[in-house]
Amino acid sequence: MSPPLWRLYLRGAISNSLGGAILVGVGRSLGLSHHTLLAFSVQLAVFLVHGLPFRSEKFYDLSGSATHFAVVAYALCSPARQRSPRQLLSALFSLVWMVRLGTFLFLRISRDGKDGRFDAFKPCWLTFLGAWTIQACWVSLIQLPVLLLNTRDDAAPAGPLDAVALALWLACFLLEAAADNQKFTFRSDPANKERFITTGVWALSRHPNYCGEIGMWTAQALAATSAFLSTGDAQLLGAWGSPLFTAFLLLRVSGAPMVDRAGEKKWGSDPAYRHYVANTNFLLPGRPARPAKVE
């Protein structure tokens, strides 16, 4: 049963107000007002041109990728006197991540036809708009390390923390890419329609894709911290808002909780699923679960 329309309008008003406050607050406090305005403008444009007229979320994830590209490209156009390897690598890694994830998400929704998460939002335009406003916040917050690094001069030499950041980013990028590819392939097989994945990196963690995602933005924040240690620019520490927000979003709001609830609803009474959940690490990859004993 759908909630009453007044409740949807209330939710929409709250989500849009909260999203707007976050965008304004981040922009003003960290000197990124133009970037947060750009993020919201791209999201609003796609919502008005396609999302609202067709009540469709088909281009939601693709518009997120376009917004990431827009704000990073704009940051690279800032009048810095020189670009350090740290800055260029930070931007490059962000764009590589964006292209891979955006392509994967678009292929997934093209295969599935819809994203069930939006079913409760689409009946009310204000609530539906809230989803796009929140995505503008997500882009602005998650890109904080890249934006903060690339909107100021950075002549600081690379140090040990940069090497740690580089290794961590590469490892986590490969982990997330492997997790997404393995699950996409698994679900594309009709024989697996009623099954859950326990192979590949999914044997090591119940949420390896989220582990990779959080790890990549932690690496970006480490790179910004390395610049802070050399320059003393305290605003660079705002980069830690990215991995903290990512972890909160994926572990407490829309990531793991939604996946786990869906799994419990579908396979909660399956002994094999109970064994997998009880014996597989929640986030960090670990030792694969031993096969369940057959009674």
TrEMBL record:
<feature type="transmembrane region" description="Helical">
    <location>
        <begin position="129"/>
        <end position="149"/>
    </location>
</feature>
<dbReference type="InterPro" id="IPR010721">
    <property type="entry name" value="UstE-like"/>
</dbReference>
<dbReference type="Pfam" id="PF06966">
    <property type="entry name" value="DUF1295"/>
</dbReference>
<feature type="transmembrane region" description="Helical">
    <location>
        <begin position="36"/>
        <end position="53"/>
    </location>
</feature>
<feature type="transmembrane region" description="Helical">
    <location>
        <begin position="88"/>
        <end position="109"/>
    </location>
</feature>
<feature type="transmembrane region" description="Helical">
    <location>
        <begin position="161"/>
        <end position="179"/>
    </location>
</feature>
<keyword id="KW-1133">Transmembrane helix</keyword>
<keyword id="KW-0472">Membrane</keyword>
<protein>
    <recommendedName>
        <fullName>Steroid 5-alpha reductase C-terminal domain-containing protein</fullName>
    </recommendedName>
</protein>
<dbReference type="GO" id="GO:0016020">
    <property type="term" value="C:membrane"/>
</dbReference>
<keyword id="KW-0812">Transmembrane</keyword>
<feature type="transmembrane region" description="Helical">
    <location>
        <begin position="6"/>
        <end position="24"/>
    </location>
</feature>
